[in-house]
Every structure is written in C-alpha cells, then in structure tokens.
Amino acid sequence: xxxxxxxxxxxGAREIYRQAEEFLEKSIxxxxxxxxxxxxxxxxxxxxxxALLGEEVKKLGDAKKVLLYxxxxxxxxxxxxxxxxxxxxxxxxxxxxxxxEEIIMALRYLYGQEPQKDCNGxxxxxxxxxxxxxxxxGRMPGFAAILGAAPDNKTAVSIVRELxxxxxxxxxxxxxxxxxxxxxxxxxxxEMGWDTYIIPYGRDTLSAIYPLNWAIRGALTFGGHKKGExxxxxxxxxxxxxxxxxxxxxxxxxxxxxxxxAINMGFPIIADTDIPEIKPSGICTYEHVVxxxxxxxxxxxxxxxxxxxxxxxxxxIPVPYSxxxxxxxxxxxxxxxxxxxxxxxxxxxxxxxxxxxxxxGKIEVIGPELxxxxxGGSxxxxxxxxxxxxxxxxDFESILERxxxxxxxxxxxxxxxxxxxxxxxxxxxxxxxxxxxLRHFGVILHARLHDVFSxxxxxxxITIYTKQEDVERxxxxxxxxxxxxxxxxxKMTDESVDLFWTCTLCQSFAPNHLCIIKPERLxxxxxxxxxxxxxxxxxxxxxxxxxxxxxxxxDPVKGEWSGVNEVVLQKSNRTLERxxxxxxxxxxxxxxxxxxxxxxxxxxxxGFMVVNREYSGMTPAGMTFSTLAGxxxxxxxxxxxxxxxxxxxxxxxxxxxxxxxxRVVWMSKELKExxxxxxKKRCEEMGDPDFLNKIADETIGTTTEELLPFLEKVKHPAxxxxxxx
Length: 725
Fold this sequence. Notes:
It is a single chain. By secondary structure, the chain is an alpha/beta fold. It folds into three domains: 304 residues, Rossmann fold; 136 residues, Bifunctional carbon monoxide dehydrogenase/acetyl-coa synthase(codh/acs), Chain M, domain 3 (2-Layer Sandwich), CATH 3.30.1650.10; 222 residues, Bifunctional carbon monoxide dehydrogenase/acetyl-coa synthase(codh/acs), Chain M, domain 5 (3-Layer(aba) Sandwich), CATH 3.40.1470. It is 36% helix and 15% strand. The protein has a six-stranded parallel β-sheet with strand order 3-2-1-4-5-6, sandwiched between helices. A hairpin with a 4-residue loop joins strand 18 and strand 19. The radius of gyration is 27 Å and the shape is globular.
C-alpha cells in the first residue's frame, strides 16, 4: 500500500469529517435536533449509514450517531520512521469519508444548496429501478464515475464518447481548480441525462457520494440484503456492481479519501496523472489504483482493470452506434429531416417469407434518398423487413418488429418513437453531415437482426420506401398483419398452453428472484411476454427463459401448479416452496426491483392500490413508491404487496384469487390514463362499464381517510366483497 496514498486519504477523511461536524453542529443549532433531514425519493434514508450501520437517519439528531462512528475510523498520518501496514487505516478512512460526505450532502439539501446548477444531484430509487433491467441484461455492462476535468474539451468529449460506445453509464463531476468536466461537456453541447448515459452529479468532489450511494442501494434493492449487513453489501458491490472511478487532472486529499471509500466497494481508481499505483489485488478484483497517461488508452485500461465484459457491435455506418444513444433526442433545431408522427405517413413492418424469396443483405431505397430531401423537411417512410430462417415463426414477427425501435435509436443522431404505423423518426443535421443516409437504416437492421436473432434469422432483406403512393399501398398490407397478430396474442390464455416460462434475467442482481411468465401475465419489468420468452428460448436454449411444464393443477383459483412449484424451488436457490400466480395474499410472485408498478393492500378499504414508478407522491398506503419498493424488492415474497408489469393490470388473471380488478380502489392518475383503453375494455367484460370512474386517484385523496367517503359515494364493490384478509 502506497504511503503517499495512505497519507492523503487519511488527511482527506479528517478534513471531510471536520466539515461534516461543523455543518451538523450549525444545522442543529439553527433548526434543532428534531428537524427532519433526508434525500429526495429514497426509502433508504442515508444509504451508506443504512446499509453499513443499520441506522435510519430521519432527523438531525440521528446523524450524530453516524458522525460519532465515523470519528472512530479516523487515524493519524503514517509514521515517518516506523513501517506499518497502511491498508486497514486507509480503508477505514474511506468509509469515514463516505459516511461524512453523505451527512454533508443531505444537509445541503436541507438548506436548498442541492442539486447544483446543471447537475442531477441525488439519484432516486425510481431511477435505480427504471434502469434495473439494463443493469442485469447486459445492455449496460458497468458504470464510470469521472472526477475532475480533462486537459481540454476535445479530450473530455472523446472519453465520454468512448464510454458511451461501450454502453457504460458515466457519472461526471468534481473539478480541477474550479473547472469541471461538466463545464467542458456543456461547452461542447454534449447532451447529458439518463437517456444518454452521461449524468452530471455535482461540481465538487463531495458530491461523488451520489453515484457511490446509488451503487450501495443496488445491494439493498436487487441483492435483498438488509440494513446493517455491511460486509454483504460491500461484497455485493464488488461482485455484481461493475463500477470504477476515473480521476482526470490533479488529485487532492478529498479525492484520495473518496477514492479510498470506492475501493472498499471493490471499485478501482484510474488516474491520468503520475500518481503511485497499488497493483496487488485483494479488495478490488484486480489492481486498486493505476495510472494511464495516454487519454486514448484510459477507457480500455479502465475496462481491463475492472474486468468488464464489453460487447461492441461494429456496424459500418458513418455515425457512432451504441445503446448509450438510445435515449438521445433530436430537437427541431437539430433536425435535418423527419418521418411519421403528425408530419407524414410512416410505418415499419417485419414479415416472414420463404428463403428463396429474398437475398440476404439486400438493401434498397425506393424513392428519394435523404440527400434529396429538403433540410428541415418531412417525408413519407415505409420500412419493410423481410426475414427467413429455418427456425423462424410467424409469432416471432412482432418480436423482431418491436426491436426496430431500439436498433435504430442506438445510432447517434437518430431519434425513433413508436412502432407499427404510429412511428416517428428524426435524423439530425450532424448525422447527415457525417454522411448518414436512409439506406443506413437497412445496414443497422440487417446487422442487428443477425447479431441478436441469429438462431432464427438466416436471411434479412430491407426495403425502404419514400414515395407517398408506395407508403399508402404497403401500409394496408401491414395493418392486416398487425390485427392478426393482436388477435393471436389476445386469444392466448393460461389454460390454452402447456408451458409457462421462467425469466431469471434479474438474478445477476437479485439471486433468489424469478418471474413466471404466462400468456396472461408478462414479466414484472414489462419487457417480456410469453411470446418474447418463447423467442428467447429459441435464441438461447441455455438462457434465462426456460420452459416450465405446468404439471398438476393444485389450485385453479390461486393459480398453483405442481410443475411450477418444483421449478420455483430449484430456481430460487431453494428459498421458495410455493408460487400462486393469481394471488397477492398467498405465496405471491417475488419482486427483483425492476417492476413497473406496485400493488399494495389497503385493509381499511378492503382492497388494493396500484402505483407506477413514475409517480413520486404519497399513496394511501402511507408510503411513496420508493418506500414501498424498498420493502418488497430483492426476491422476497411479501403477501399483500407485489411488483408487476403495468399491462398485467388489464389481464383477466390480475389478482383474480382476491377478486381481480374489482379490488382496486386507488390508482395513480397517470397510470389510469395510460391504461384507460385497456381498462375500459376490461370493465365492460366485468359487466361494469363505469367501474374505472369508481377507482380513486391522487385528485381524490392520498390517505384512506380521504379515500373511504369517495368509495362509499360511488358504491365501490370492494366495500361489500368478502374480507381480503
């Protein structure tokens, strides 16, 4: 262990402690020990204090205990004359720094000093769960936290683009002599935000606690670890959260102390300056601290040191291509041309054909190319993808078609929204300047279909139409197919199939969790339905989606089958013995943390409420979405509470053992509006066309006291149903 690093980290921790102590004393003097203090939208209080110490910091007085513990981890500088091992003291200092930084940043929120200008600030639990599926399915292989500033703007942009190309989530912040990489990226008009995988957290080093406590919440959310299980939480970060720190420019004691905190979590530090290195492994998978002075090599070196598994798909198009660009927006002032939306007719259609009918890799543009379209204009567009394969099936058409959205969005400068005949595409001026053409849509789709669906796609031919008469003619054929597909899926029931499917995709983060995907219940992330799981198995027979023979029906009302129970026991690492697919009270499905919605019991109303993760307000359960999520994630069975995909709410099998949709007494307004068409149809099937209006939302109230008079007024059926418990 480097004596230089140890000395700097220990000094830095003492300085951070001093700042935390002074700030806390000031806050208590001005506001009192009973003053509430918290980070926004989290169920984990001060996440490090909660995970490592088991402390629930709710008031200023509660933080004193955390500060006192941090003080016990502080040490004097290493002796000049006597050699002692420095590692333990340095790691202690790192933990002290994290605990104290958390206190400081929470107090800043109390005083309205956070988030900083152009910065995200604290990362919410909602964001963590929203991105959860990308963390576990390999689309996002890891995280980088950049501290400081590059020697120039060009280098700053180059580094983050190299990370984007590899789909690595990049948190940017801190500074060198008052200049931050955030400023460098803003000056170069680099789009930052969750959608582009570039997140500005804050302009000082103390704010680096945000990406770090976001990581520790992964252990609590997806790992199922409990508060105070310090070693388990840190080990989880080391083994399952693939993060590293990249320090650009001169280091100071505060950066060294924060870096020591990161090393405790198994996150190595890579610097672009000539600093001492710590190469032996131990806490980190490989080296702990390394230097890479060549900025063209610093990203590959960082990936090597952390041991990330990166899959870079090289596609011959003139713009960068990566999932990191999937959320990029092309605004009107940036737009060269657009297709669909309310501006022109557009559609996309995948159809299965006989192998001898198409030529693999053939790409045609019939009509004007992009370079013939007026700058800022709109035009009609039809994208027809013909696929053939020995294992291709008609049922797979919609699955492939749905992926057009993501495949095209991953090209820098391309914005895609919607699907089928309701799509909307924009191409940026920058992409066009680099040479991007409509034929490159075909290049992308051909490459990605072969890459992702190689098990079922042997040939793919893409034809792009830009003449109005062609688009009008061909969209009619596509619409017939759309309707046929919808009818096939809608007619499928749990009783009509012999197989269900497992989905263990999230076990990389929640080891004991699995989804049981049925025709009438999709995965709780909302991304995988029965046909998706079937296609996945065809693609990868050894993958996360495995067939389940239902076996003997033990209970048709609760949805319990012997074959499902056997698989659940095996796949949950023998932690679960029973699974009831239609019940929320008796052995319900587990939750990993990626769920779109939460169902929660409201005993006073003899019913249930449903809240989506986008809703940040209070609910009648007395908890926000984040708080609820913190109690049910990590692969637990929690009777009365359950995470679900939003489309499951409109299913006939939705908590049918407890009465189904008729038990829902409250639903967040946004969710109700988003599902209104499907819910109205379901209400008609129930024989109560007006039932949707009997479900309260936040405009009616967010407490059971406010809720009950409304339910009585509208004569909600839940009030007269058998007791739910």
